Amino acid sequence: MCFRGLKPLMVASLVFSIGFLYGCAGMEYVNKKGIAYYHTELPAADRALAAAKAAGKDKECPEAYKYAEKMKDDAYKTYWECRTPEALKQANEAAAMAKGLCPKLPLPEAAKVAPPPPPPPMAAPTVSLLASPLSIDKGKCADLTWSSTSASTVSIDPAIGKVSAGGSRQVCPDTTTQYTITAAGEGGTKTASTTVTVNPPAAPEPIDKLTVRINFDTNKADIRKADAAELKKAVDFVKKYPGHKISVEGHTDSTGNAKSNQALSERRAAAVKKYLLDNGASDGDKIKAAGFGQSKPIADNKTKKGRFENRRVEILIFSR
To answer: Which of these ranges, 13-27, 160-174, 268-282, 304-318, has the smallest mean pLDDT?
Structure first.
């Protein structure tokens, strides 16, 4: 378990408790960067470097000393990132190098001292990207939050570009969009993605509705004189809402097949729309007609009364 992201006081309390129970086996008090106890390999590397410096090795072979010191510092950095096994390995290598600095070789062999080994390979980048919320209504925004390690450049597409190693940003896409973060470093390249879904706008709610019962002949959509009184109510109803959007929607019962009922409902809605226009109820660009066939029953199609209620034309009034 790694406690190196906690506050110093909390870390000290936790380590003290663990030490009380287990005797701090394999740990040593250092109190560096607010962390009180470290695995013994790290302070051992500190002592090895200090001993080498006391022996004058930092001046006798400065380049090799600096390299061992850097390896020790890198071990602490790796440890603070909670990559403990890798950190302990680096610390052991730094201690061994410090103890072996400036070897005393026979004079003829002195020129053959090998250069210090190359630095260990860089760790591969890590990266994460999250969106909150994942789903938004059009015109709303979401927050992208990301983090990365071991990366020299980090960028987010589309439309964002280069960003810092970690952070957050608000995005307001017009359509559903997948965002991808790319972290690149000496250890390679990693990517992560998240998608913000943009919901389609909700259908508007009508502010008023009138249902008219017109006795169309079977399988026909012709307006009959006998229905004039019912249609007069429709004209008067629409005229109460000048300038508003009007939807005339036709419905049938389930007698017959669905395909023919759909076409029939569309013809009957169009016939009522034409009647409204012919009688000056509204402007042509304000009225639309649609048919729904037998798909939206309001009563039981198994009864004569239910089928009568389902055979209807609805006139819906919407805001301007």
So the answer is: 13-27
